[in-house]
Amino acid sequence: MLGWLLELDKDIFLYLNGKHSPMWDDIMWWISEKTSWIPLYVVLLLIIVFRELPHRFIYTIVFAAIVVLLCDQIAGLIKVWVARPRPTQDPAIAEIVHKYFVNGKYYTGGKFGFVSAHAANTFGIAAFLASWFNNYKWGLFLFAWAAIVSYSRIYLGVHYPLDIICGALLGVLIGLQCYVFRVRTMIYLEQKIEDRKAANRKKAEQKKT
């Protein structure tokens, strides 16, 4: 069963990776680059700062950073544990994989590809922020962005579809759990602050009497 699934995964990859053109090569490389999305991250950060109450936006920013950290690190550990070669590193198909030529050489990525850290990170952030926005249009936009970034990794030849799918599932799981922890942490800490304020008021009233 597993062998059949891996062969199907390989066939789907070769089909998708084979759909390329010089124009799309450059576009997909740009999409795949993390630095390309810095303007989007800045806009999202500003939205969080201005939409949240002054004492609350820090919770969202901290837990969003935790999402990225967990997705990246866990994906890295799974890569080493599973040790599935990337398409560009697989001797059986490496020669027929379409690769992007940059800086005088073909881009091949690291040694292992399962699971995709790009997919985990983008889908993790998408799930976390979609929960925070609680808005259909924002959720659709964020998951579409994550899907496009993830697909670019197949186009560039460095990930199989299963690498992307499993990375996306990992990211969504982490993103949703981190959002739940954000809410619980915020409620817990704010309750602690209110309890402390109430205790201080009570002490102040006792001193007056």
Short description:
This protein has helices spanning 2-17, 22-32, 38-51, 57-82, 117-133, 136-155, 161-208, and strands at residues 100-102, 105-107. By secondary structure, it is an all-alpha fold. The chain has one domain (21-197): Vanadium-containing Chloroperoxidase, domain 1 (Up-down Bundle).
Question: What is the fold's blueprint, element by element?
Answer:
Elements: H1 2-17, H2 22-32, H3 38-51, H4 57-82, E1 100-102, E2 105-107, H5 117-133, H6 136-155, H7 161-208
Antiparallel strand pairs: 1-2
Describe the protein.
This protein has 209 residues and is an all-alpha fold. It has a single domain, classed as Vanadium-containing Chloroperoxidase, domain 1 (Up-down Bundle). It has helices spanning 2-17, 22-32, 38-51, 57-82, 117-133, 136-155, 161-208, and strands spanning 100-102, 105-107. It has a two-stranded antiparallel sheet. A hairpin with a 2-residue loop joins strand 1 and strand 2. It is elongated and about 85 Å long. The mean pLDDT is 93.
